[in-house]
Amino acid sequence: MRMAVFGTGYLGATHAACMAELGHEVLGVDVDVKKIARLRAGEVPFYEPGLTELLQRNIENGRLAFTTSYEEAAEFGDVHFLGVGTPQRRGDYGADLKYVHAVIDTLAPLLTRPALIAGKSTVPVGTAAALADRVQQLAPAGADVELAWNPEFLREGFAIKDTLEPDRIVIGARPGGRAEGILRDIYASAVQAGTPFLVMDYATAELVKVSANAFLATKISFINAMAEVCEAVGGDVTLLADAIGYDNRIGRKFLNAGLGFGGGCLPKDIRAFMARAGELGADQALTFLREVDSINMRRRSRMVELATAASGGSLLGKNIAVLGAAFKPDSDDVRDSPALNVAGQMQLKGGNVSVYDPKAMDNARKVFPTLEYADAVTTACENADIVLVLTEWREFRDLDPDVLDGVVRNKVIADGRNCLNAPKWVQAGWRYRALGRSAS
Ligand code: UGA
Fold this sequence. Notes:
This protein has helices at 10-21, 33-40, 51-60, 70-76, 98-107, 127-138, 159-164, 179-186, 188-192, 202-233, 237-245, 266-279, 287-310, 338-348, 361-367, 377-381, 394-397, 422-427; strands at 2-6, 25-29, 64-67, 79-82, 115-119, 145-149, 169-172, 197-200, 319-323, 352-356, 372-373, 386-389, 412-415, 431-434. It is α/β, with parallel strands linked by helices. β4 (79-82), α5 (98-107) and β5 form a beta-alpha-beta unit. The radius of gyration is 23 Å and the shape is globular. The model has no long low-confidence stretch (mean pLDDT 97). The structure holds uridine-5'-diphosphate-glucuronic acid (UGA).
C-alpha cells in the first residue's frame, strides 16, 4: 500500500519506518526542512534504539522516502497517517491542535481521489468527528475521503517493537465505511499474529488513548503516594510494590516508585484530559487526576529535600553529581524530565550541579544551559558531596561503587528511581538514600 505519514517526530518517524519495514511504500512528510534533510540522509533526529538501522535499510530498498511537499504526498498516498504533536497549550491545560489542523487544512484540498486519513496523534475526545466534517468540506473528492482514528500506544525506547507488535490495534471509524478494511490490510501481519483488532466509534477510540495514559499515570502516582506513607512510617515501598504486584489484578508493571512520570505524553495528556472533561461538563469525573498530578510533582521537591538532608541540611556550595537527564532510560527526551527539574531546583538552592546522561546531554543543554555538564559518570562525580541517580540507565544501575572511590568527596548516594542494588552500595561504605525507603 502507498501511504504518507505527516509529522516525523518520535511517532511519525517510527511509524513511517515501521510501515516500510512491513512492505508498504511510505513517504514521510514534515514542514521542518532540516529534519527532512536529516531523515533523507538516513539520520534519526532523536535517540530511539534500532530506528537508524530500520530507517536506513528502508531508504536503501526504496520503500521509504521523505518530502516537505504536501502536493507530492497527496499524489502519492492512498492512506495518509497523521502523526503530528499535540503539546500542552501555553497558559492552560488543554491540548494545542494547531499542527493537526494545519495538516488537515493543507492536505484535504489536495485530495482529488478516494483516500483514507488515519489519525494517530493523541487528541481531545471530539476532535476526529470535527476533522471528518472539515475534510468533507475541503476535499475535492468529498465523501470518497474517509477519516479514521487509530491511536498509537508506543513507548519511547520500545517504539519499534510497540509499532510492529502492538498489544492491540484500535480503530475509530464511521460504521459501514472502507476504513476498517484498509487498516486491516495495512496491519495484516499483526492481525494474523492474533493481535486484537478493535473497531469502535471515534469518541471511544480517542478516549482509549487518553484513558490508558491516565490509568498508567494513576498507577505510578498510587505507588508514589504509598512511598510517602512508607517514608512516614519507615516502610519500604519497593517491597510493598513487589508484594502487591503479585496479585494478578494489580500487576507489578508501572509500580516503580521514585521521581515519578515525565516526558512528552503522560503529564500533558492527563492535563488535556481534565481540560476536555471540563468542557464537556464531566470535570468531576476526573478531579482525581489533579491529585495524580500533584503527587507526581511532589516527588521532585521530596527528592530535593532528601538530597538536602543527606548533605547535612543545606545544598549551598555543595558539589552535586546528577546522573540522568532524560525523562526515562533509552531515550534522549528531556521534555518535562523529573531528573532535569530536580537538577535545576538544586542549583537554585546554591548547589554546584554537574549532570551526566548517556544520550540526553545535547537536549538537556538546550533546556537548562546554566547547568554544568560532564562527559562521563566519573567526571560528574569528581569531588561530589552527594551523587544522585535520577534516570535508571543501565550504565547507572550497573555502576560499581568502587569506581567512584577516591573520585567523590563524600560517599553519599541518593537513588531517585529505586534502581540501585542498595546492599552493594552500603557494603562498599556508602550512605544510601532512596525515595520511599528508610535510610541505610
Ligand atoms: C507513554 C505510554 O506508556 C505509551 O503507551 C504511550 O503511547 C505514550 O506515553 C504516548 O502517549 O505516546 P512514554 O511517554 O514513552 O509512553 O513513557 P513511559 O514508559 O510510559 O514512562 C513515562 C514516565 O513514567 C517516565 O518518566 C517513567 O520514568 C515513569 N515511570 C514509569 C515511573 O515513574 N514508574 C513506573 O513504574 C513506570
